[in-house]
Design goal:
alpha+beta; about 80 residues; 3-stranded mixed β-sheet
Length: about 80
């Protein structure tokens, strides 16, 4: 399931110069969470994550890939102290 979601997400966000750097399922507090970590050449600001999340959610809702997932968590990769200029 993760590979299929990764393919869909990468196709959705490639025009925004974003890509999936990690995708994994975990159980947190009794819920199954699908984590999608996005990466880019530069810093990913909150607006880009928000826009990407909206697009990803809308498209994945059209599939049955998340039928066993209670929560979807989409976030950007930590850049290790890079400052946006």
């Amino acid at each position: 399931m993760e590979k299929e979601v990764e393919t869909i997400v990468n196709n959705l966000i490639k025009d925004d110069n974003l890509q999936v750097s990690a995708i994994f399922k975990e159980k947190k507090e009794g819920k199954y969470v699908l984590n999608i970590e996005l990466d880019s050449e530069g810093v990913i600001d909150l607006n880009r994550i928000t826009d990407a999340s909206r697009i990803i959610n809308e498209e994945l809702d059209k599939t049955d890939l998340l039928k066993d997932i209670d929560e979807l968590d989409i976030y950007s990769k930590e850049k290790g102290g890079q400052n946006e200029r």
